Amino acid sequence: MCGGVARWLRVLGIDATYTPGIEDQELVRQALDEQRVVVTSDHKILERRLFTTGRLKGLLLPVGLRRDDQVRRVVTRLRIQVGFPRCARCNGELAPVQRAEVADVVPARSLIWAKDFFRCRACGHVFWEGSHWRRIGAVRAEMAARTAAAADNGAAEGG
Ligand SMILES: [Zn+2]
Asked: Where are the beta strands (DSSP E) in 66-113?
């Protein structure tokens, strides 16, 4: 239901699945099977017994919230620690690869300028440092600062 949010959460290293057009019933079943938190803008789903009794955890994203604010809300409400990015396309794990290994898929300009390259273990998509990556870096830094601040307010680990 929140595909754009799912992509950003993956970039933040959060294991986030998203299935376009999934039926409510199937969504709930999958969440139970995989012990996932359901993030949705549909308050009706969250009124189901599974949620009201606490068997499933859900978070409502108000309709009309900007993408950035949606992501912030998820990260702060669920107290998520930002980790190493996952594949924004499929949620797979990214593995570092050598420049030479991706020379055939990365545009020449990026191949020269980018420092780090990663390949998704699941779908094989290649990611690299670039203008998009800088924006990602900025968002990651902001989210990391937020979760650190949240941790300071509570108890918990330093570092
Ligand atoms: Zn992938």
From this structure: 94-97
